[in-house]
Amino acid sequence: MLEQFNLDLFNLINATPESASGTIAFATIIAKRLILLFPLFTVACWFWGAKPDMERQRAFVCKTAYALVIGLAISWLVGLIAPHDRPFVVGIGTNFLDHNATSSFPSNHGTIVFTFVFAFLFWLRTWVGLLMLVPAIAIAWSRIYLGVHWPLDMAGAFILGMIACGLSQILWAIIGYKIQAPLTRLYHLIFSSLIRKGWLQA
Fold first, then answer.
1. Which sign, positive or negative, has the C-alpha torsion 134, 135, 136, 142?
2. For every residue of the chain, which 3-state class applies, written as one string?
3. What are phi and psi of 21, to 5 degrees?
4. Nearest to 88 by CA among 79, 76, 100
5. Tens digit of pLDDT for each residue in 67-79?
6. Separation between Cα atoms, residue 87 and residue 131, nearest integer Å
7. 11, 162 Cβ separation under 8 angstroms
8. Terminus of the chain with fewer CB atoms < 10 Å: N or C?
9. Helix segments in 48-150, DSSP class H
10. Is 70 in contact with 116 (CB distance < 8 Å)?
C-alpha cells in the first residue's frame, strides 16, 4: 500500500516529455544549485552577527556540522543495508537529470537540506527555520519532478534530518561542545587582521 502511494505520488509529480522546457530548466537549477544557500548562510553565522549572539551562533554552526555528518552516515548505512532503486533504474517515469544509479532512500540532498532546516529551528531562530523550509521543499520537489527520487525518499530524509539533529544535541552535551573553543581560537588566529578591521566579528 505504501509503495503504491509512493508510485502514484511520483507519477503525479514527475515531469513528462510534454512538460514545459522552462519549468524543467528551472527545476534543474533548483535541484543542482539551491542547496548552496544552506551552507553559505550557516557559514555566515560564524563570521557575522551581533556580538552577544556570536557564541550561540558558533555553537549552532558546530552542532549543524555534527548533525550533517551523522545524517549522511546514517543515510549511507541505510543505502548499504537496504538499497532502493531510483525510478529511472526500474524504468518508471521520465528522468531529466543525470545521476548515478545509487540507492535512492533516503535522499542525500533531502537529508542535507532538512538537517539544516531542523538545525535552524532547534539552535538558531524559528523564523529562519520556517523560511528555509521553503527552498528545502523546493529542492525535494525538483528532484522528484526530474525523476531521480521517489516521494518517500524525501519523507525519509525529512525524518532523518530531525533524528540527526537530535543525536547531534546529545553528542554536543557529552563531548561536542569541547570543539567550539579551540575552533574559535583558530579562527581568531587566522582572521585576526580582518577582525581588527571590523570586517568580521570577533
1. positive
2. CHHHHHHHHHHHHCCCCCCCHHHHHHHHHHHHHHHHHHHHHHHHHHHCCCHHHHHHHHHHHHHHHHHHHHHHHHHHHHHHHCCCCCCCCCCCCCCCCCCCCCCCCCCHHHHHHHHHHHHHHHHHCHHHHHHHHHHHHHHHHHHHHCCCCCHHHHHHHHHHHHHHHHHHHHHHHHCHHHHHHHHHHHHHHHCHHHHHCCCCCC
3. -65, -35
4. 100
5. 999 999 999 999 9
6. 30
7. no
8. N
9. 54-81, 108-119, 126-145
10. no
What nine digits make up the cell of 188?
A: 581568531
Type of residue numbered 37: L
| 164 CA to centre of own chain | 11
3-state helix, strand, coil in the chain (%, to 5): 75, 0, 25
Average pLDDT, the chain: 94
Is residue 176 very low, low, confident or very high in pLDDT (cuts 50, 70, 90)?
confident
